[in-house]
Amino acid sequence: xxxxxxxxxxxxxxxxxxxxxxxxxxxxxxxxxxxxxxxxxxxxxxxxxxxxxxxxxxxxxxxxxxxxxxxxxxxxxxxxxxxxxxxxxxxxxxxxxxxxxxxxxxxxxxxxxxxxxxxxxxxxxxxxxxxxxxxxxxxxxxxxxxxxxxxxxxxxxxxxxxxxxxxxxxxxxxxxxxxxxxxxxxxxxxxxxxxxxxxxxxx
Length: 203
Fold this sequence. Notes:
Blueprint: H1 3-16, E1 21-25, E2 46-51, E3 59-61, E4 72-74, E5 83-88, E6 91-94, E7 100-107, E8 113-119, E9 124-131, E10 138-143, E11 149-153, E12 158-162, E13 171-177, E14 189-197, E15 199-202
Antiparallel strand pairs: 1-14, 2-5, 3-4, 4-14, 5-13, 6-15, 7-10, 7-14, 8-9, 8-13, 9-11, 11-12
């Protein structure tokens, strides 16, 4: 068989290994709320959960000025550590292989926004990779296979020991935290939207 055909076939097989969009959440364009509620989740397939001693301060925010201000999740009013997750109603996410997570965010102060996962067996994880401060909104893409994970105490939202080779083939909830209390506008984290690229595994 000609080499060109072999290369094309190999490229097709590799392309098939890249998972498609599992879910995206962009938040409803309705008035701000403190705390954010399920009413503000735009994707009907997703269930939102809030965690941590500061969860009552997780806000769905929006401002009329500037004109392009998005509808986003903000933690500036959190009086303690916090976390927010999304769970697909009918499927687990398989985050093995070429799975990715993308979001549009903006952090201020020393905030480093991290991915958190709840596995099907109840294990909670937090990523070593993070998204740091920025003067403007930006898109960050995480290759899941490049990430190392620590265990997460979801009640306190505090990181623990390194998790050795966690099984990411059935992920129940996906979310984020900066592992810190809110500090108002000068020291806070913001998420406009999130996309998860993964294979769906039926619950």
